Amino acid sequence: MSEKMQIKPMNGKLGILTPGMGAVSSTFVAGVVAIRKGLRLPIGSFTQMGHIRLGKRTDDRQPLVKNFLPLSDLNDIAFGGWDIFEDSVYDAAINAGVLEKELLDQLKPELEQIKPMKAVFDKYYVKKLDGKHVKTGTKMELAEQLMQDMENFKKENGCDRLVMVWCGSTEIYMENTPTHATLEAFEQGLRDDSVDIPPSMIYAYAAIKMGVPYANGAPNLSGDVPALEELAKENQAGVCGKDFKTGQTLMKTILAPGFKARQLGIAGWFSTNILGNRDGEVLDDPESFKTKEVSKLSVLDTILQPDLYPDLYGDLYHKVRINYYPPRGDNKEGWDNIDIFGWCGRPMQIKVDFLCRDSILAAPLVLDLALLLDLGKRAGMPGGIQEWLSFYFKSPVMPEGLTAEHDIFIQQTKLKNTLRTMMGEEVITHVGED
What are the pLDDT digits (tens) for 156-179? Predict the structure, then answer.
């Protein structure tokens, strides 16, 4: 047995704040309320439905994760957030059309009470959206307003702790600049209204400045800059991202490790998506699509390691397309054509047509990330990048000098072993009599 970490007790509620209260956030909140009322099960949530093996196989110790870890109870969570539209969570959920109206009507009294705070928004970074429920001021003033919002929310809802999970839209493609290099330069950029600082980065700064853990569910640069990583370490705020692993990329991280494990070659992987929700509308803009494309394209190279396996993956042609198609709503279709080859180079094909519901897949990830980030904070995990949470993301943020691990099974092992270590249990290596 290793030594168990000293985990601070939970005094009061956990506040989960989501910038963006559209399809993903409203589905998440409505789902948790439905689970509290015994109307639905938390399907898709590792923290609520998963088991974790402890000790040797012969020990037969496989408790539920929620019984093994001192996680916040679902009844001790308060929900809040920001949006460019004034809709309550009930109205947002009805508009999104993800969950059935019959269920939402049973939750209406609770959901109508949750209304968004005014958002930080700039149409320059998300060209396909526009809303009037927004804050004004310099970027530093906007950050200060967000921090005040968090303080007010904490007091009004009796929260002991806060976590922020970005559930907003994909911003235009951005890269690191000198503004992002140091905290001093970044804060000067906020005061100067630098174009290098988009809204998602202002939210990340406000959270981290207050020591609040931050998860980025979109492919935006957001908290993934040296200045904010530096601040996160100083303020012991865990940060993780980017881009919730749902839909098509989830399938890639399941299938690609299998092909590699069996040493099957891949000549080409063509992926196309159609979706009609707000995310699809935003991604119809080429600049926002590029941000998503970079996130989705990075997966296969890292898993397949073409430098080590040039005969199998050295000439892989990987193409990704996203198409906005309003009639489909939140019910995204991810279609993949995979050209593989085997013994003696003989070609074969695999076709996958995943008719998924994007927000249904994302909602449990919001819950898990919030609960685990809060646990990590209470356990005294070092601030900064939380690599152990890579399991949940398409494009995991890594400490400098490390390459992201995309294989979902390796990610799951790392996640579970981190939790075992946190609780004073031995890691499991599957060697010998393990």
Answer: 999 999 999 999 999 999 999 999
